[in-house]
Specification:
Rossmann fold, single chain, 375 residues, 27% strand, nine-stranded antiparallel beta sheet, D-amino Acid Aminotransferase, Chain A, domain 1, four-stranded parallel beta sheet, Dna Ligase, domain 1, 31% helix, alpha+beta, 12 helices, binds adenosine monophosphate, 17 strands
Length: 375
């Protein structure tokens, strides 16, 4: 157990993308010094932080130097070498530990962990050879999804298999990566819960978000989710159970599938603030980023208060210009831009938060702009 940080102490964040940037903004608000480690000198988080070590994430010497310079170390993504993180525990406090990283960066470990604590996941098989693929397909059947066990995000590193004809794509993925074959979950909705826990086991659990993906990339989050109170309760309970089993410190984003008969399956875990939790910045009494910093700084965790119903919509690279034109017309909408260097297609470059009294009307208003139907 470590003492709560004081203003003037330093929080180091590995990764300087938009999540690191929003963490840094929360940390600055609370009076902490913020250091970033990122390969890009001009990364979003560097724009709001005190200093940056510009180095690759695999650069062990740079990681050690970073750890020596900070009071507490945290991260904005899960693809950090868990062994390197463990070595750094002598040099700085790492309240989140390395275990949560090692579980969540590997889909097989993550699924096995979830099964072991008795929460529902889609049927799955480890697939490393074409023979294993054939055997797994026999067990699981079509449709199913083949995913790389590591480094997948926004639908990258995965293929949906609908019939024998798709096996060719699958073989190509297996040739390069260790994979997991997952049964298709015929979901009626996708949901997520952000839970943030400190070392004393106190947790801030945010309301369930309903998430709509387009081309496997999060498009909209709607809160409150349009689900029954019973489903909401189930999702929140599962979140608490997972966090307790992990002895979580910091933030966990939990993605769920909801089926028509109101069963929930866990899709995946992210040991960090999550895109579907961005709504908390304007719509909740504290944001997921504030909560994360509080947790790693050893502060008590408050009960969040939802201040308004809300819709969050992502802005991708190809939507930059249109979103700026929209900003002229929608003074009530909160436009966030991450300060990334290139507006590449399908790259998340910002988001908009819309507080609302009428979710359906707001969803229609977003659709009527025509911006998001172009992509
Ligand atoms: P993931 O990277 O695992 O979060 O997958 C990205 C998206 O693909 C999810 O948000 C779902 O929309 C879809 N997807 C992934 N796995 C499944 C599955 N087993 N059944 C149905 N849809 C899935």
């Amino acid at each position: 157990m470590y003492k709560a940080l004081k203003p003037g102490d330093t929080i180091g964040i590995i990764g300087g993308g938009q999540l690191g940037k929003m963490m840094a903004q929360s940390a600055k608000k609370m009076g902490f010094i913020v250091g970033i480690l990122d390969p890009n000198q001009n990364c979003p988080a560097a724009q709001v932080s005190d200093w940056i070590i510009c180095a690759e994430y695999a650069d062990k010497e740079a990681l050690r130097e970073f750890a020596r310079k900070v009071t507490v170390l945290t991260f904005e993504f899960e693809n950090i070498d868990a062994a390197a993180l463990r070595e750094m525990e002598d040099l700085s406090a790492i309240p989140q530990g390395s275990e949560v990283i090692s579980i969540t960066q590997d889909r097989i470990k993550e699924k096995r962990f979830l099964e072991s604590i008795g929460v529902s996941v889609a049927a799955f098989e480890l697939v490393e050879t074409t023979d294993q693929l054939t055997a797994a397909l026999e067990k699981i059947g079509y449709p199913c999804v083949l995913k790389t066990t590591r480094f997948g995000y926004d639908g990258k590193g995965q293929v949906v298999l609908k019939s024998e004809a798709d096996k060719e794509w699958a073989a190509a993925l297996i040739a390069e990566n260790s994979c997991i074959l997952e049964a298709w979950v015929p979901f009626s909705k996708e949901l997520s819960v952000m839970i943030v826990r400190n070392q004393r086991g106190e947790a801030t659990i945010f309301p369930v978000s309903e998430n709509i993906h387009v081309n496997n990339i999060l498009h909209e989050s709607i809160v409150p989710a349009r689900i029954s109170p019973i489903v909401s309760e189930k999702a929140l309970e599962a979140a608490q159970q997972i966090a307790d089993a992990l002895q979580l410190v910091g933030t966990l984003g939990i993605e769920f599938f909801l089926t028509k008969d109101d069963n929930i399956f866990i899709n995946e875990l992210a040991p960090r603030p999550h895109n579907s939790g961005h709504y908390t910045i304007e719509a909740v009494s504290l944001s997921q980023f504030d909560a994360h910093i509080r947790a790693v700084a050893g502060l008590p965790m408050p009960k969040p208060r939802l201040l308004s119903a809300v819709v969050m919509v992502n802005i991708l690279g190809q939507q930059m210009e249109d979103s700026l034109a929209l900003r002229e017309k929608k003074a009530e909408w909160s436009f966030h831009y991450y300060g990334k260097e290139g507006n590449y297609p399908n790259r998340k470059i910002g988001h908009i938060t819309i507080l609302t009294n009428d979710v359906e009307e707001t969803l229609k208003e977003i659709e009527d702009t025509g911006i998001w139907s172009k992509s």
